[in-house]
Amino acid sequence: MPLPNSRLMHPRFHENLRRSAVGDAGLPDHGLIFRPSDAAPTIDPVTKVLTPAAGATVYTGDLRVQAEPSQQRGDIDQGDQPVTLHRYRASLPYGADQILVDDVLVLDRSDDEQLVGRPLIVRDVHYSTFAVNRYLLLEDHPEHPTPEA
Hints:
CATH superfamily: Bacteriophage SPP1 head-tail adaptor protein
Order of helices and strands: HEEEEEEEEEE
CATH architecture: Beta Barrel
Number of strands: 10
Helix content: under 10%
CATH topology: Thrombin, subunit H
Strand order of the largest sheet: 1-4-7-10-9-8
Strand content: 35-45%
């Protein structure tokens, strides 16, 4: 048990770890997280294409996305098409604290080209006193709009 008014670790210990966790080595991908709008979608009168309302961007910057193979939700039916939902874990700088469940992450740069442009929905945000990064649990969803839509 620590002495009264003492800390187990130096106050700047986590600050230094968090600073060293960013950059190309720690967070090699780049993307944005946006909050979808509740506004009604519009239909283009010429092309008849349904366009969702634009959402607000809540984070733009470096991050890392990893597949969570043990977290696969399995096959579901979406319309008449079978779809397999996969889960991912994203690591962002610790200060990225404005992200909420149901926000959407879209990568614009990654070594894995299959992840670029694929909308990933935030299903959980992890908080921790001793965390070095902010961690998100994500799920892909082929029907979700991208921020350009």
